[in-house]
Amino acid sequence: MRGGWSIRTRLSVLIGVLFLTGGTVLLLVTYLLVRTNLPSPVEFSVRGDTFRITEDHRYRDEVLRTLIAQSWVALLVAAVLAVAIGLVVTDRMLRPIRWITATARSLGADDLDRRRLARTGRRDELTELADTIDGMLDRLADAFEGRRRFAADVSHELRTPLATQRTLIEVALGRPDVSADTGELGRRLLTLNVRTTRLIEGLLVLALSDRGPATREPVRLDHLVRRVVDAAGGDIALEADPCPVLGDAVLLEHLVLNLVQNAVRHNEPGGRVRVRVGPDLWVENTGPVVPEELVASLTEPFRRMDRAGSDRGVGLGLTIVASVVAAHRGTLSVRARPGGGLSVRVALPHAPTEDASESCSQAWVSPSVTVPPVTTRTRDQ
Q: Residue 247 sits in a domain of what CATH number?
């Protein structure tokens, strides 16, 4: 264990030390009592004559040495047994704490309202600890749910006025008597409206993904990726093997859509985008060189390499990807390519299938990526 001995080991050693200390004190008291009560040289009379019979002092010393030696051996054996018994007893006593720790460690932001410690049985300090943690989880779940509801409600309410504004701008730009200055202003407002709409839709998807999948069912990830790539158009190299995963089809489609759009949007002119499915989802492009120190922060909200131009997105693409992956109990790995661009790997729980031809194929490793991956950590990890 890092940082020294575990509590179980320390308690067991403490029991052994206390037993050894108490046994040593008991041995000294026993030694003094035996030494005091051993017979001394005696005198007695036979037919009027007095004889002095002196006990052999070597016998006395031998008795005391034997007492000390055998007592120390017995004491050391008893101390070892005390440590062993202490290990068993402390292991039994600390087992509920390990269970509480493992349960608390497995909790995420998407299941705070579904999993609790709920320790039953005799009321003691451990039960009180479990109840305290459950109360804290209740408060955290309420706070998370309130934040998600607020983001979802605000995003939903803002979509209607934005759609109305866009319609009015398009109608105004369609008039034949619009001036050049008014047309330029309208086009800028329309661009800003599209960017704001993307931001609102991204926040709405982020709120939904934070809430967790509404359903978990088998989804053919290869079919979903192929549909998204076909709709995106452009020069995208696609390799898709049969790969059923377990999750929510709507959220997974947003995940794939954000990955593909992010790779296309941040690609360099004349570059390439490569997508591979089986058993994991790999997406890489040949965009600009990404500094290693910025890779881990790309999944944070509104973090972008360049902020010039409204066609570069709103900085929520990889954030949404990370949130959807975390909601599905998957893993996300982002690493920079030596020649520029990113390589993103998403591993999702595979759905069980009886047809071997539809199971996920063997892993595929991008030959163009040689640097170690930087695994991103999402908000509930």
A: 3.30.565.10
Is 250 within a domain?
yes
Q: Which two tokens stand for residue 347?
A: 């591993």
Domain boundary pick from 106, 129, 146 = 106
Q: Is the bond preceding residue 269 a cis peptide, omega within 30 degrees?
A: no
> HEC string of 273-335?
EEEEECCCEEEEECCCCCCHHHHCCCCCCCCCCCCCCHHHCCCCHHHHHHHHHHHCCCEEEEE
Task: Give pTM, 2 decimals.
Answer: 0.54
Dihedral of CA atoms 137, 139, 140, 144 in degrees, nearest 10, equals 140
Q: What is the pLDDT of residues 280-295, one digit of tens each?
A: 999 999 888 888 888 8
Q: CA 306, CA 315: separation in Å to the nearest integer?
A: 10
Place of tokens 């982002």: 334
pLDDT band at 276 (very low <50, low <70, confident <90, very high): very high
Angstrom distance (rounded) from CA 65 to CA 283: 80
